[in-house]
Write a structure and sequence with these properties.
Elements (H helix, E strand, L loop, with lengths): L1 H5 L1 E3 L14 E3 L12 E3 L5 E4 L3 E8 L9 E5 L6 H12 L6 E6 L3 E3 L2 H5 L6 E6 L1 H14 L1
Parallel strand pairs: 5-9
Antiparallel strand pairs: 1-2, 3-4, 5-6, 7-8, 7-9
């Protein structure tokens, strides 16, 4: 019964009820919603262990005018929370060459450089991936020169 009392709040008497004086209880849901794309992990016994641990980061590319200014949400598994693996995830998500990445900035103004800084990132933090405009444009210019 103590557990039920912890999950309920007293309901205030309304003027419509005639002031009966009895305190009704209102049930409060205690489950937390999960991200819809997060797969559920199962233990060896088949019990639900909750959502798989992923970090959801908001990312966008900057450095060229044609880049979309909007952020995308990227699910980053825990084993990818190193600087090198995050670069790989970025390259896969945006289809860019790692050689054109200049730096990763945690908004508003923090340059990320080390694994420990990547591991401290929280869900829905915004990252800007700065690229070199010249290096990104170089393959297109080479294709034009061949024609």
């Amino acid at each position: 019964m103590a557990n039920n009392e912890a999950n309920t709040l007293p309901r205030l008497p309304s003027s419509k009820s005639g002031g009966g004086g009895g305190a009704e209880r209102l049930h409060v849901a205690t489950s937390t919603p999960t991200h819809p794309q997060v797969s559920k992990a199962r233990s060896a016994h088949g019990f639900d262990d909750g959502p798989a641990p992923v970090r959801i980061l908001k990312m966008r590319l900057v450095g060229r005018e044609e880049y979309d200014r909007d952020f995308i949400e990227v699910d980053v598994p825990p084993h990818c929370l190193t600087f090198r693996r995050l670069i790989e995830v970025i390259c896969e998500e945006f289809s860019v060459d790692p050689k054109i990445i200049v730096k990763i900035r945690k908004l508003p103004n923090t340059k990320l450089r080390r694994d420990v800084e990547i591991q401290r990132l929280l869900d829905y933090q915004e990252l800007e991936v700065e690229t070199t405009a010249a290096a990104a444009a170089a393959p297109a210019e080479e294709d034009e020169a061949k024609d």
